[in-house]
Write a structure and sequence with these properties.
- Two copies of one chain form a homodimer.
- Chain A has 754 residues and is of the alpha+beta class.
- Chain A is built from 21 helices and 28 strands.
- In chain A, the strands form seven sheets. In chain A, strands 1, 2, 8, 9, 10, 11, 13, 14, 15, 16 and 19 form an eleven-stranded antiparallel sheet that branches. A five-stranded antiparallel sheet of chain A has the order 7-6-12-18-17, with no helix packed on it. A three-stranded antiparallel sheet of chain A has the order 3-4-5.
- In chain A, helix 5 packs antiparallel against helix 6 (372-384), helix 10 crosses helix 11 and helix 19 runs antiparallel to helix 20.
- Chain A is globular and about 90 Å long.
Chain lengths: 754, 754
C-alpha cells in the first residue's frame, strides 16, 4: 500500500482543504480512485475510470432507481449503463497509455467544492515525443442528465498525428450480467451520436447522446473522421495532424435520459429522444467551461447549508468531513422519492445499488439536521415501499410492514442475494442469511421517522406518512413475537442482529429492544392521535384507507410491549448481546484486531465455526445504547463499550464511527479521535483496496455523526436537543450549521464549550 | 502491417511445412493470431488468446450447436462459454505482461500436425530479473470435451515469488451480450473447480471443470493457496517462493460438458456433473504430456486421409493448403448431425456461428472427396433442418423447403440479423437484406446433395435423406416463381444473388439457373425413382410420410422448369448478371481493385449508391459457370470471366478462390496462381486485421478447391470424374488422395500430366 499515492493537501487559497489528489498512477490501485473520486448528482453516478482504458478498470455509470433483474436466479440491481467516459487517443498510431512511455508531473485531483475532476501530466512516448495532457470532467449539479469531459493535448516541440476515437459503448456489463437489450443507434448531422438501450426486465429505455468539439489552438478543426458502428457500440474516429506547440482541445459532452425519469413522466420514447437531442445540441453550443460554471453555483448553494469548519492540528480532519459530505451529496437521489441510497452510493456495483439500514441509521441524521427536505424524500421512499414490506411480511407468515433487509424498487420486497463467497471448509458458496432473518431494519426505519419528526417538527409529514409507518411496523413486530409458555414472555428467535458474525441467535438485544421501542411508540401515538389529531386517527384507523385497524390492534400491541423479553444489564451493567453470546468461547483476537484488511478471521474460520466464538463484526449492543440512550445510564454505556469493543473486529464499515461516538460519550476522547480517524480512512486512507467495489455510504454518515453527535455531543434525547461537547485535544473548535425544528443554528464548539 | 510477424518456415524435419509462427507479440495484432491459431475439435473451439490478459483480447470458447438468443431483438448465436484459458501470473507481486519489461526470443507456433500451440520467450522484468517462459496448449482431438495448458517458468539466476491465479471466468460475453445464467460454483477436495451455467433461452446447461498441477522442478509443490469466488467466477490463487534456476511447472487441465451433447443424451445434470468431475480427476492423473500424445495419434489418422503434397518453388503453398485443411478439421462438428459449420468456424463471434452456403458450395467438396462420412453428417444437418425450411417458406408465402440464408438450430428458420453497420450518408444502421431475399442457398444445398451422391455413390443416403431434399427444394422454387403474363415466362424478382453489392435485382442469373437446375433434377429423379426405386418413391410420394405429394407436383414442376426465364449468353458469350446490371454505370474501379483492406468502396458509396454501379463483391456469373459448367462452353466461361473479374472487388472471402479455379479453367495459370495466393492470404497473409472476428471458413474450402479442382482440374461433370490438370509454372507436382465412389485414389499431377 503506497502511502504517497493519495495526497490530502493539494488545494490552495479558496480550495484549501477542498481537494484530494492522486499523485501517481498505478494500474493496481486504479479502482480505489475510480470509487473515491466518483462524480454524481444523485440521479447520475459515474465512477472516475480514466478516459484511456486499462485492464481491471470498472467503467460504471448508474442512474438511480433503474433497477433490473438479469435472470430469475439473480437479484435486481442498478444496471451499468453504456460507457461514455472512454476516449481512445492514438499518437502516431500508438494507443496512448500511462503504462507506456515516461510519465512526469502526474496529478489527479477531485475538487469537492466544484465537483470537477482534473488530471494532468507530461508524457513522453517511446519515440521521445513529449506531450502535456490535461483532462477535466464533471457531472452537472445543475442539469441532472448532463456530464462532460475536456481534454487538452499540447505538443511540446514535436509534430504528431493525433487520432481520437470516442462514442457510446454499451458492451459494458455488471460483472458479466448484461441488463440491456440493444436499441437504435444513429449519428445525426455527422456529429450527434445517439444510442438507445432498454433494460431486459424492468423495460426502462435509456437514451444516450454524445457530441464532440475538436479545436486545434483556437481554430475549429475539421479533421478526417469516420463512423464506427458495432454491436452495442457507436462512435466517431477523428484523425488530425497537429504541429509542434499546438494544443488539441477535445470536448465530449454527453447526456442520459430514461423513461423512468421523474422529469420525463408521461413522455413517449420519441419525445425523450427529441428532447435529449435538443439538449445535447444546446449543451454543445454552450461548451464545457460555461456548463461547468453553472454546476459550480449549485454546488456552492449546497455547501452553504452543510459546511462544517474544523479548526484542528491536522487539516486532514477538515478534508475528511468534507469528503464524507461530498459523497453524501452526490449519492443521494433528492430529486425522486421513489429511490433510496445504495450502500455504495452510485460509486460501484457492490451491494447492487440496494438500500439497507445504512440510510436510516447512518446517513439520515446528516440530512435531517441540515437538509430536511432530502431526509423527507428518503423517508417517503420507505413510505412508498410499504406495499413491498407487506408482501415480505405475508411471505414470512407475519402481518404489517416487514421491511426488506435490502431494497430496490418500491414494490420489490426482499432483494438480498442468497449466495456469497466460498466457504473455506466446504468449497461451496456461503449462504447469506440477512435477507431471511436480519429483521431489525423494520425498527430502524420507524426510529428514523420518529427522529426526523422530533428534529424537524414536521407534523405534516407525520400526518401524511410518518404515523402510518410507525403503526404498520409495530403491527409487524407484534405478529413476529413468539410466546414462550414456560417463561411467560415474548421472544424473538432465530435472527441475525447488527452483529452479522452471530447468525441464528435468539433474543438479540438490539433487535428486541428496538422492537419494543417500536411497539411502545405505536401505543403512545395511538393515544396522542386519538385525543389530539382525530382527522389523521380516523383515516389511519380505517382499514379501507390504510389497511390498518388500530382499535383492533391496540390491546395486543400494549400487551406485547409489556411482555417482550429484553436482555437486562447484569450487575456489572453488561447487556448480553443475545441468549448465548456470553457463554461462547473466547479466543485470542489480537491477530484480527491488528489486521490490515478486514475479513482476516473469515480466512481462518467459516461462518459455522465463527458462530461459536465471542467475536463481533460491528456495533450491536453499543449501537443499542447509542440509539436508545435514554434507557441506559452512563455506567451501562461504559461497561458495554468496554466489553464489546475489544471483541469487535470492525469488519463492517458501520462499526468504527459508532464506536467513536460512544467513546466520546464515555469520556474517552483520545480513543474517540482514533476511531474517527480510522473511520475516515476506510475510503480516504492509504489502503488502496478497500473501495474497489464502491465507497462506504454508511461510513460517511457515521463520520458526520462522529463529529456532530460524538465530538460536538449533539443529541436529540426524547424530543429535546442536547449539546454536550467532548472535543478531543487534537481539535480546537468545530463550527457547524444545524436546523432544529426549522430554525437554522450556527454552532461553534470550542474546548468543550458552546 | 508488419510482414515479419508471421513466419511460414518455422518447422524442421518432421514438422517442415507444418508450423506457422508469430515472431513478435504486438497487442495491436493479437486478434489475428487468436483466430488463425484457433484450437478445436469440431465440438469445442477456443480462440488462442494468451494466458495473460491484454486490452482488446477476444477470449472466445464455443461449443458447436449450443445456440442461444439474448433477446427478442437479437438473433440466436453461439454463446461465448466461460473462459478457462486465462492464467494470471504475478512475479514479485507484479502482474506479468509482455507489454512490460524486455522480451526476447519470442515465438508462438501452431503445429498443425499435432494440434499443439506453443509460446516461448525470455522476459526480464523492471527489477532486472530474468525468466524463461514456455506455454503449451491443446484441445484434445481424442476426447472432445478436454483441453489443457502447461506453463513452465524458469528463474534465470534469481529468486522470485511466483503467484498464479487461475480458474473459470463466466464474466465473458459475446460483445456485451451475456448468454448465461450463473449456476452453481464449487471447489472439491481443495482442488477441482466446477462451475455451471445455463443459456438464458435455449436452456442448455454447461458444466465446466478445471484443475491444476503445480510442481517446482520435479517435486509437487504445496504452495499457499486461497479460493476466490466472485460473481460468475471461481478460481484458486497459488503463491510459491521459487529459487534461482528452479522451474515452475503449472498444468491446467479443463473440460466442458453440456446437456445438449450427443454423448450425454438422456443424462441428468447431476449425472453430467459427476461424469465430468470423474473425467477431470482421471485427466489430472494422466497429465498434460500423455493427454497430448493421445490426441496427436488422432490427428495423424486424420492427416493420413487428406494430406496433399505440393512440390513447388515456394514451401508456403504446401503450408497454406495444410493450414486450410487444419482449420476445416477443427471447425467441423463431425460428431453431431444437428450442427453445421459456422462462417467463422469456431474461431470468433463473426456471423454468430451461423451456417451459410459457405458449407455446401465451398467446404463440402473437400469432405465429400476425402471424408465422405463428415460430408454426410453435414448434409443430414440440412435434412434435419427441413422443418425450419418449411417454416421459412410458409412465412414468406411459399411452399416446400426454403432454406434460411443463415442457419443455427435446426428448427430455428431464418436467423440472419436485420441491421448492420452505419450508413455513411444517413448515419443510420444499414439494413441487411440477405435474410429476406438472398434465396439461392436453397438450390446450393440441393446441388451439394447431388454432388455428394455423384461423387460417393451413396444410394442409402439418397434414399433416406437426399431425394427428399431434392424434391422439397424444387417444390419451393416452383412456388417461388412469378408468372410474367407479357413475356409468357416465369421470373424471380427482387432478390440478392451471390453478388451482394447488387440488392433487389430481378432474374439474377445464378439464382434463376440454379432454381431451374433444382426443378429439373426433381423432374428427372421423379422419373428415375418411379421406375427403379418404388420403395422410396412410394414413401416420398405419400404426403402423410414426407409432406410431399410428388404425383400432384410433377406437372407443375415440369412446366415451370421449361418456362423459367434464364439470362442467355449474348453474342459475345456474356451472361447478364441480372436484368439491369449491364445497363448500370461504369466507374473507374482502380482505387478499389488496389485496396489493401476490403470494403473501401463502402466508405465512398452507401448501398443505394453502390447499387447503381457495375461493381461486384464476388463471383456470381463466374460461380454459375463453375457449378453448372456442363451448360456452358469454354468461350462463354472465358467471356464472363474476362468481363466480371475486372468489376469484382473480391470484397467477400468467397471470391478469390472461385476466380482462381475459373482462371485455371480458361487457361490463365499465372492469374490462377496469383488469385490462389491472394486467397490464402485472406487469413494467413500479413494483413494483421482481416481475421479479427474469426477465420474465413469458406475461403479454406475454396483454397482446397483451387488446388484440387483448379490446378489439378478435378471435376465431377454430370456424374463422371474428369481430371484435367492446369498446374501453374510455380508448382511442379501435386499428390493428393481422393475417394471416388468409395475407391481411394492417390493421384499425382506433374506438369499437367496425371
Amino acid at each position: 500500500m503506497n502511502q504517497s499515492i493519495i495526497n490530502y493537501n493539494s488545494g490552495k487559497d479558496e480550495y484549501k482543504n477542498w481537494i484530494v489528489s492522486e499523485t501517481e498512477f498505478n494500474v493496481k490501485y486504479q479502482k480505489k480512485c475510480e470509487a473515491i473520486f466518483c462524480l454524481g448528482n444523485g440521479y447520475l453516478g459515474i465512477r472516475s475510470a480514466t478516459e484511456e482504458s486499462y485492464l481491471g478498470q470498472l467503467r460504471d455509470t448508474f442512474i438511480s432507481g433503474t433497477f433490473n433483474k438479469f435472470g430469475d436466479n439473480e437479484v435486481t440491481e442498478l444496471p451499468n449503463a453504456a460507457d461514455m467516459i472512454a476516449i481512445d487517443i492514438y499518437v502516431d498510431g500508438e494507443l496512448f497509455s500511462l503504462e507506456k512511455g515516461i510519465v512526469s508531473n502526474y496529478e489527479r485531483t477531485l475538487n469537492m467544492k466544484t465537483g470537477e475532476l482534473k488530471r494532468y501530466f507530461t508524457w513522453t512516448n517511446k519515440s521521445g515525443k513529449t506531450f502535456n495532457f490535461l483532462f477535466k470532467r464533471f457531472v452537472s449539479f445543475h442539469n441532472l442528465h448532463l456530464f462532460a469531459t475536456k481534454v487538452e493535448i499540447t505538443l511540446v516541440g514535436c509534430d504528431a498525428n493525433i487520432e481520437i476515437y470516442s462514442g457510446i459503448n454499451g458492451q459494458v456489463t455488471n460483472s458479466g450480467s448484461q441488463h440491456f437489450l440493444e436499441g437504435e443507434k444513429r449519428i445525426f448531422d455527422n456529429r450527434y451520436i445517439q444510442m438507445l438501450q432498454k433494460t431486459t426486465e424492468s423495460n426502462i429505455t435509456f437514451v444516450h447522446n454524445t457530441v464532440h468539439n475538436l479545436k486545434v489552438d483556437e481554430k475549429e478543426d475539421i479533421p478526417t473522421y469516420r463512423f464506427e458502428m458495432d454491436r452495442r457500440k457507436v462512435g466517431i474516429n477523428y484523425n488530425s495532424s497537429v504541429l509542434s506547440n499546438q494544443t488539441v482541445y477535445f470536448e465530449k459532452i454527453s447526456n442520459i435520459y430514461t423513461t423512468r425519469d421523474k422529469d420525463m413522466e408521461g413522455m413517449s420514447i420519441k419525445e425523450i429522444k427529441d428532447i435529449s437531442l435538443k439538449n445535447i445540441k444546446h449543451s454543445r453550443s454552450v461548451g464545457y467551461d460555461a456548463l461547468k460554471n453553472v454546476g459550480c453555483k449549485e454546488w456552492q448553494k449546497n455547501w452553504d447549508s452543510i459546511d462544517i469548519k474544523i479548526d484542528s492540528d491536522d487539516d486532514y480532519n477538515q478534508l475528511a468531513v468534507r469528503f464524507a459530505q461530498y459523497h453524501m451529496l452526490i449519492m443521494t437521489p433528492k430529486h425522486d422519492n421513489r429511490c433510496g441510497i445504495g450502500a455504495k452510493g452510485l460509486s460501484g456495483e457492490g451491494y447492487k445499488g440496494h438500500s439497507f439500514w445504512d440510510t436510516e441509521i447512518f446517513i439520515l441524521p446528516f440530512f435531517t439536521y441540515t437538509m430536511p427536505e432530502i431526509a423527507k424524500s428518503l423517508l417517503e421512499y420507505r413510505y412508498n415501499m410499504l406495499e413491498g414490506a407487506h408482501i415480505k411480511a405475508k411471505e414470512n407468515g407475519y402481518r404489517g410492514a416487514m421491511y426488506p433487509w435490502e431494497s430496490a424498487w418500491i414494490k420489490d420486497g426482499e432483494v438480498t442475494p442468497v449466495w456469497g463467497g466460498a466457504d473455506i471448509v466446504t468449497g461451496e458458496s456461503t449462504k447469506i442469511w440477512s435477507g431471511f432473518i436480519e429483521q431489525h431494519i423494520t425498527s430502524d426505519i420507524a426510529f428514523a421517522v420518529w427522529q426526523y419528526y422530533q428534529i424537524t417538527g414536521d407534523e405534516e409529514f407525520m400526518n401524511e406518512y410518518g404515523y402510518e409507518i410507525l403503526f404498520d411496523t409495530a403491527i409487524f413486530w407484534a405478529s413476529r413475537l413468539e410466546w414462550d409458555k414456560d417463561k411467560n414472555e415474548y421472544h424473538i428467535n432465530d435472527v441475525v442482529g447488527p452483529d452479522e458474525f452471530q447468525e441464528h441467535v435468539n433474543n438479540d438485544a438490539f433487535t428486541n429492544y428496538m422492537a419494543q421501542w417500536c411497539m411502545e411508540k405505536a401505543v403512545d401515538y395511538y393515544k396522542i392521535l386519538k385525543e389530539n389529531n382525530s382527522r389523521v386517527f380516523v383515516r389511519l384507523n380505517n382499514p379501507e384507507y390504510s389497511g390498518l385497524n388500530l382499535d383492533k390492534e391496540i390491546d395486543v400491541l400494549r400487551d406485547k410491549t409489556n411482555k417482550i423479553y429484553l436482555q437486562l444489564p447484569n450487575k456489572d451493567g453488561l447487556i448480553p448481546q443475545d441468549d448465548t453470546y456470553l457463554s461462547k468461547k473466547n479466543i485470542d483476537l489480537t491477530k484480527y484486531k491488528n489486521q490490515k484488511n478486514v475479513g482476516l478471521i473469515s480466512k481462518d474460520y467459516n461462518p459455522k465455526q465463527r458462530n461459536k466464538i465471542q467475536v463481533s463484526k460491528q456495533a450491536s449492543v453499543v449501537m443499542l445504547v447509542y440509539l436508545l440512550e435514554y434507557k441506559f445510564n452512563n455506567k451501562i454505556k461504559q461497561s458495554n463499550f468496554d466489553y464489546y469493543e475489544p471483541k469487535t473486529l470492525h469488519d463492517s464499515s458501520l462499526s468504527l464511527a459508532i464506536h467513536s461516538i460512544l467513546a466520546s460519550d464515555v469520556d474517552k476522547p483520545d480513543f474517540a479521535y482514533k476511531l474517527f480517524r480510522k473511520a475516515t480512512e476506510i475510503d480516504l486512507g492509504t489502503n488502496m483496496k478497500t473501495s474497489d467495489p464502491g465507497i462506504h455510504a454508511a461510513s460517511f454518515g457515521g463520520i458526520w455523526q462522529a463529529v456532530i453527535c460524538g465530538f460536538c455531543g449533539v443529541r436529540m434525547v426524547q424530543g429535546k436537543l442536547r449539546i454536550n461537547p467532548k472535543l478531543p485535544e487534537q481539535i480546537n473548535s468545530i463550527t457547524f450549521p444545524l436546523l432544529w425544528k426549522g430554525n437554522k443554528l450556527e454552532i461553534k464548539v470550542t474546548n468543550n464549550k458552546l
